[in-house]
Amino acid sequence: SIDILLKDYPGTETIQLNRNYRSCVSIINAADRVYQAGEADSNILSGRGDFKGIITAAVEKSIVDEAFYIGKKIEYLVRHKTKEVPADSDGDNRYSYCDCAVLIRNIDEFGLFYKQALDCLKIPNHIDGTQIYYRELDYLLSYLRCLSDENDDRSFMNVLSHSFSGLSTDDILLLSETCNREKKAVYRVLRDGKLREDGKHENMRKRLDSFINCFEKIKGYEKEVILPDFISRVVNGIFFGKPGENIYYPVLKRFIEAAEDYYELCGVFNRQ
What we know:
The structure is a single chain. By secondary structure, the protein is mainly α. Helices cover 54% and strands 0% of the residues. The longest helix is centred in the first third of the chain and has 18 residues, at 63-80. This is UvrD-like helicase C-terminal domain-containing protein. One of its GO terms (cellular component) is nucleus. Keywords: ATP-binding, Helicase, Hydrolase, Nucleotide-binding.
């Protein structure tokens, strides 16, 4: 695909991979192997960005084997690995079991197998099947995409259409019509306050004003703090409306800290 793009757009110097669902470093390495093997016209290829989010994939024979595989990964992480902490932090750089979270697609069918495996490995655990956690993570990931690209109308609409935003279908339709009429991105319409010009839909305008004000505050943190702290501030801001305050939200915070190199977040924060 990279080779085709270079042929279609000769003279291209930079290709930014900012919306992919795999590790960027894997893509760069695969393309480089093609070039080095002489199967492409160019042998000049270099990658730049945050590549620490490499995915590890494994296929086990059964759900029991899978549960034990993940449990042993957690056990190894806690016993042998250390994590990066800010220089001025008093926190321990060793992982704990609280740093780990496992998302299971079908908790009713597979949850018991995971619990039995973790219990067998003497790993403290809590299995919870509340679907709200997945809704919150879905909302958070869409919000991170908005922060990564202000012109990503699809992600903005996904966020604003989410139940957490409190907007109705009619509200979203009006916003979409305004964007089409003004020929502007959703972010620009919200930031410029175009919906304030009509005297109707007062409740909707208040919600949108609150959303964009919070969004602007959170966006300002991006270059000030390291990634885990930034994500914690995003979580606090979008779920509590108080960006910057140290509010502990266990489920989201533990998942984000444990999955800092998770492929979705790597794609969002692949800064050039």
